[in-house]
Amino acid sequence: MSVPDPLAPDSRHHAPLPDSTRSQRREVDEEESRRANGPDWDAYADEYQATHGAFLGDAGFVWGPEGLTEAEARVLGDVAGKDVLEVGSGAGQCSRWVRTRGGRAVGLDLSWRQLQHSRRIDDDTGVVVPSVQGTATDLPFADATYDVVFCSFGALQFVSDIELAVAEAARVLRPGGRFAFSITHPTRWAFADDPSEAGLVASQSYWDRTPYVEFDSDTGRVSYVEHHRTLGDWVALLAGAGFRLHTLLEPEWPEGHDRVWGGWSAVRGKYLPGTAVLAADRG
Ligand SMILES: C[S@@+](CC[C@H](N)C(=O)[O-])C[C@H]1O[C@@H](n2cnc3c(N)ncnc32)[C@H](O)[C@@H]1O
């Protein structure tokens, strides 16, 4: 029987943990986070796309497991004619949707295997998302290049140096440009990563920012890392980088939506928010 890891945040994707893998909460710096998460996403990309690709849609834009689409939410505003960067773009589904709406979207992702899937879908659909391998904390673009920077569950919760990632988004945006992103709703970090009723019982401190770490029990090698910030942390981060926060969406679980994605499910979605979508404009 698969036993959910009680330490894990919701967006973690190994359920259950592989045999030799253990988890803990401990400090991890930016280099170690990246060294773990790049190869982890390379190894997981095929399964991720096979499992979630149809739900995401080759040229679809969903903000999270609840299925809220950008067409409904309109968090980015009108993207037609805009220069748009997706950070943590995976297979580029969201950027492809932006392109079908007339935006000049480009993708950036840490994982070459995710980017190979992006190329595959480019070929299948004929909607090409120019993409680059890189990290959110060191964007390979000139200052004031983009009108919109966004992440749909991409990059931000995998980054340790989040001040730098937010500063990088601000740097590449033009004045007045928009930064929008979805993350696991911060309150979920107080609960076990379990889609059943057991995941409705708070068992960890919401205020404990110690990262979630998976490591190999034989070698000690860190294989996966996620970082937690409270809602208050996000407000302070955005304000500190000169952004004006104007949107916080907490999508409700839709009636009749019975898809299970990691710790997300109708059972928990009835009581707890699973996703937060924030949008802020650069001064
Ligand atoms: C949950 S997936 C989301 C991808 C896509 N937005 C989607 O909805 O499928 C997270 C993505 O963030 C990428 N990622 C992780 N750390 C990153 C970093 N430091 N910089 C850029 N991308 C990163 C991963 O490789 C992965 O493709």
Automatic annotation (TrEMBL):
InterPro entries (alphabetical): Methyltransf_11, SAM-dependent_MTases_sf
CDD domains: AdoMet_MTases
Pfam family, one: Methyltransf_11
Keywords, alphabetical: Methyltransferase, Transferase
Domain Methyltransferase type span(s) in chain numbering: 85-181
Region of interest (Disordered), ranges: 1-40
EC number: 2.1.1.-
Gene3D superfamilies membership: Vaccinia Virus protein VP39 (3.40.50.150)
PANTHER family: 2-METHOXY-6-POLYPRENYL-1,4-BENZOQUINOL METHYLASE, MITOCHONDRIAL (PTHR43591:SF24), METHYLTRANSFERASE (PTHR43591)
Name of the protein described by the UniProt record: Class I SAM-dependent methyltransferase
